[in-house]
Specification:
Elements lengths: L1 H18 L5 H15 L2 H13 L3 H27 L1
Subcellular location: Cell inner membrane; Cell membrane
Main location: membrane
GO molecular function: fluoride channel activity; metal ion binding
């Protein structure tokens, strides 16, 4: 869930900075990489998936992976869309 929220926030920041004429690259990196990157933890996602696989919950591991990626892309797109429209 945290990764999905982080993807949404990255989408919002990306859309916002695309619309702005005057901004620094450093400011963009600070929010997108620094704040959002620190907020989301891909390592947690990886660890949870490995734990599922080690417990022979292969179907759940693949479903978790697919849904996490799909939701991440969807939330990023939603963030960009909301800022642009």
């Amino acid at each position: 869930m945290v990764n999905s929220i982080g993807c949404f926030l990255i989408g919002l920041f990306f859309g916002y900075f695309e619309k702005q004429i005057y901004h620094t690259t450093e400011l963009r990196f600070f929010f997108m990489t620094g704040i959002c990157g620190g907020f989301t933890t891909f390592s947690t996602f990886s660890n949870e998936t490995i734990q599922l696989l080690q417990n022979n919950q292969i179907g759940i591991a693949f479903l978790y992976t697919f849904l996490s990626i799909a939701l991440g892309f969807g939330m990023t797109y939603l963030g960009i869309y909301l800022v642009k429209n």
